[in-house]
What we know:
The chain is α/β, with parallel strands linked by helices. It has a single domain (12-271), classed as Metal-dependent hydrolases (TIM Barrel). The protein has helices spanning 21-29, 42-45, 54-70, 87-94, 99-114, 136-156, 171-180, 208-217, 242-252, 256-271, and strands spanning 7-11, 34-38, 77-82, 122-128, 159-163, 187-192, 201-205, 222-224. Strands 1-2-3-4-5-6-7-8 form an eight-stranded parallel β-sheet. Helix 4 crosses helix 5 and helix 5 packs parallel to helix 6 (136-156). 49% of the residues are buried.
Amino acid sequence: MSTAPVLDHHCHLDVDRGMGLDAVDRFVAAGGTHLIIINKPSWHLGPLPTDAAAFEAVFARTIAIVAAAAERLPGTAWGCLGVHPACISRLVDDGGLSAGAAAELMCAGLDRAVAHVGSDRIIGIKSGRPHYPVDAAVWDASNAVLQHALSLAAAAGCAIQLHTEAADALDEIAAVARSVGQPPERVVKHFAGGDFAGALTPSVISRRDALARACERGVPFLMETDFIDDPDRPGAVLGLRTVPRRVRWLTEAGHTDAMHTAHVALPARVYGIDTVATLS
C-alpha cells in the first residue's frame, strides 16, 4: 500500500463484461490509492439514446461502480459523467439525426449529467469534440455542445474533462471557457501529451516518453491510463497498474515535486478533492 496518494485521473470500468473490480484490486496491489472513473460511451452499454432519459441508465451504472470501487481502495473513488463527443457521429450516421438534432440530444444528456455533481461522489462532467475528421455541420454542432458543457460546468462550479483532437495547446477552448465563466485550469485536456501547453490542465497519458517530457518541462499535470476495460481489447489503452508503476519510476528519478502536484496539489485545485485526507 502506498504511503502517499496515487491517483489515476481517467479510467473506465466495466463490471459486466470487463475486469471490473478485479482491475481495482490490481491497481491497489501495484500501489494505487485513488481513481476518477468516467462513464463509458452510452452505445457501449446499450442502444443509442433516443432521449435525455436514456443517458440516466449509463450514469446510474457508473455511480454504482464508483461506490463499489471506493470500498476496495485505500483512498477512494470519484466519478465524472458526460456524453462522449463521438456520440454525435453515432447519432448522425447510425441514428439518422441531423447534426443539430444530435447536438440537442447530447446537450440534454449533459444537463442530466451535471445534475449529479455534488452527490454520489460525482465531481465533474465530461464533454469534448471529435478527435477525427468530420464535416462542417458536425464540427459546428460539436463546438456548440462543447460550449454548452463549459457553461454547465461554470454554473455548477465543477471541473470538466475534455476529449478532443490531439493538440499541444487548445487556446480557442480556453477562450470559450473564460467567456462563459469557467476557469481554464478547471478544464482538463484528457489524453494529453507531454508537450501540452496553455491554460487548460493536462491529464498526461502515462506513457514513459510523455511523462518524462512533462516532467522535463516542469508543467503541472495529472496522470491517467484511459483504461477502457474492454475484453475485446485487453490492456487498452493502458492497464490500470500503469500509474502507480510510473509514479514509482518518476519518484526514483527525482521528480517528487511533480508527483506531489499530480496526485495532491492539482487534484485539489481542479476538483476540490483531498487525496491525503481520504487516504486511510
